[in-house]
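Researcher: Quick test of sequence recovery. Tokens follow.
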């Protein structure tokens, strides 16, 4: 344990090496290099560590075998017997009663397990590892933490599978072997499982960096580059599966969400890996936003635990999930709009490509509407602030593709009307959130209101201009709407006192429908007829 901690410290010093050479960094903040490291570069250290890779793997296997649930109980019983025997032998010559001479084997195994995984993460993250001169060292490192049996299991989903002895086979084999340690990591604690997850992520990021480096180097072998490119999506999908296991695992120390209070940053990283590296990220986003998040209760309750299959999703962690999903859908929608703008500028626009773009846009809008509607049940200020902030950004992104929608209006009028009507459900809720925040003086929300209001006004007038330019102005009307809360109830001084003051209900059905649709401020409405 002492030796692997010393290695971990040296790897940490290598990470800080670049900052130590910066001329503007104060001398007092520059830590002294540990003994034995001196001015040694990362490449020199990796070459010296090469004979130790197999030893590190052996110690990691031994620690994992002790930490597995079926073994840890037996080891704990043996430790207790040894400790009782040690205490009785210690008290015989009149030593103090509080003296402890026997270290817990499980505690030591946990420390060795975590430190070695952290060392691997730091080695994989070092940029010098993917240098051309260090590729043999990298291959030996991957081979030391892999096996042929593991490579066959994980490569069964690849067609054709990578050949034995190749770099891509070494990556697949190492990932499969490291992934097998999850049971031991999860049986220990949530932080240990996260450290295990970071090692897996470091391996995938290292493979991505190797591909990027090969793309920049014209001398790289084309065939090897293509084979590495083929396994990257597969490794990413495996990383998403690994992240989902942590999110779904029944942790013993959650205590109805109390221990998740200080784990928001870690949970965000896991969620981003789970969503970004998934084989079908949009379908996964839609499933969580539309079907899973609505099942989370708004308030904490003693008899309320985790939701569906995700033990890490509860009232205490809802804001973390909610914020991550907003970030992910906004990033996905930005990519869709970029593709739309590129298609709009191209000389040849095919109908099939246009239909695909409308389908992707409608999927993003549906996910955003579902997320915004969750604010009707969850009244926390932090949740409302996230909805207002990212709702305004989503509207701004939508307006970047307005030229494309205008060019395709005649051919795809129904699709554009459906998009605007669906997005209108979210914009009205955002307007209500802004008004309620002002009345209740919710500063985290009100600070975002001016920018969001400008975005909503731009959206209204751009839609109006779109319909009028296409000679369909009758499909659009705009007016000052009533004040309503998130439940749709009229609030404030605009609540009608009697039926007589409201025109005794003699207006036409269409007029009453338009009157009931009112919220506050200017808002657009597409008519059902064209």
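Model:
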């Amino acid at each position: 344990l002492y030796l692997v901690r010393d290695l971990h410290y040296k790897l940490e010093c290598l990470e800080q090496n670049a900052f130590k050479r910066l001329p503007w960094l104060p001398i007092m903040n520059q830590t002294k290099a540990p003994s034995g490291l001196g001015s040694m570069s990362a490449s020199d250290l990796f070459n010296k560590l090469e004979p130790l890779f197999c030893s590190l793997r052996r110690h990691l296997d031994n620690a994992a075998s002790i930490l597995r649930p079926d073994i840890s109980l037996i080891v704990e019983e043996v430790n207790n017997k040894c400790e009782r025997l040690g205490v009785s032998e210690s008290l015989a010559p009149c030593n103090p009663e509080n003296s402890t001479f026997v270290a817990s084997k499980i505690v030591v195994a946990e420390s060795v397990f975590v430190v070695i995984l952290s060392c691997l993460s730091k080695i994989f993250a070092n940029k010098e590892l993917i240098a051309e001169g260090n590729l043999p060292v990298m291959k030996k490192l991957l081979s030391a933490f892999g096996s042929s049996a593991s490579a066959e299991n994980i490569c069964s989903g690849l067609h054709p599978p990578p050949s034995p002895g190749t770099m891509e086979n070494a990556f697949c084999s190492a990932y499969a072997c490291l992934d097998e340690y999850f049971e031991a990591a999860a049986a220990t604690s949530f932080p240990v499982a996260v450290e295990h997850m970071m090692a897996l992520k470091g391996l995938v990021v290292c493979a991505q960096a190797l591909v990027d480096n090969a793309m920049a180097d014209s001398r790289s072998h084309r065939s090897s580059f293509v084979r590495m490119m083929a396994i990257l999506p597969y490794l990413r999908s495996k990383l998403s599966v690994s992240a989902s296991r942590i999110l779904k695992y029944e942790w013993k120390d959650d205590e109805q969400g109390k221990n998740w209070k200080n784990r928001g940053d870690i949970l965000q990283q896991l969620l981003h890996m789970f969503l970004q590296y998934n084989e079908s990220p949009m379908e996964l986003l839609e499933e969580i936003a539309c079907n899973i998040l609505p099942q989370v209760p708004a308030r904490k309750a003693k008899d309320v635990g985790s939701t569906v299959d995700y033990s890490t999703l509860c009232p205490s962690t809802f804001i973390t999930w909610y914020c991550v999903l907003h970030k992910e859908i906004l990033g996905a929608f930005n990519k869709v709009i970029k593709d739309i703008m590129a298609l709009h500028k191209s000389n040849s626009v095919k109908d099939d490509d246009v239909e695909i773009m409308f389908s992707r846009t409608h999927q993003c809008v549906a996910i955003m509407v579902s997320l915004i509607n969750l604010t009707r049940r969850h009244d926390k200020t932090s949740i409302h602030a996230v909805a207002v902030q990212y709702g305004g950004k989503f509207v701004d992104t939508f307006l970047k593709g307005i030229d494309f929608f205008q060019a395709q209006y005649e051919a795809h009028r129904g699709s554009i009307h459906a998009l605007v009507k669906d997005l209108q459900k979210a914009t009205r809720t955002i307007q209500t959130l802004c008004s309620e925040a002002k009345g209740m003086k919710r500063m985290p929300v009100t600070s975002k209101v001016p920018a969001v209001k400008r975005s909503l006004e731009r959206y209204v007038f751009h839609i109006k201009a779109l319909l009028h330019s296409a000679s369909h102005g009758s499909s659009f009307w705009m007016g000052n709407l009533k004040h309503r809360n998130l439940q749709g109830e009229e609030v404030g001084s605009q609540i009608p006192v009697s039926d007589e003051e409201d025109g005794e209900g003699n207006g036409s059905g269409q007029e009453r429908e338009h009157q009931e649709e009112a919220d506050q401020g200017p808002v657009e409405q597409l008519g059902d007829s064209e």
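Residues 18-22, 24-30, 493-530 have pLDDT under 50 and may be disordered.
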